[in-house]
Amino acid sequence: MSQLDSVELAPDELEALRLVDQLGLQQQQAALQMQVSRQTLANLVKAARFKVVDCLLNQKALHIQAQEKISSD
């Protein structure tokens, strides 16, 4: 089997998709929750959707970057 090309999805892109597409939040609400501007949120959603569609249409693997955990010690 041949090696698939892969596309990386950043944690903030995944979170933007989750809030807008899965939970159905308006972009302004999602932006507030992520503590970014509405324009930044819109850019994240656009980039993430492009990557997902690219993977589906061009048979690429979607690699989700691990999010760094912050210790609460």
From TrEMBL:
It comes from the Bacteria. Belongs to the UPF0251 family. This is Uncharacterized protein. It comes from Vibrio mimicus VM603.
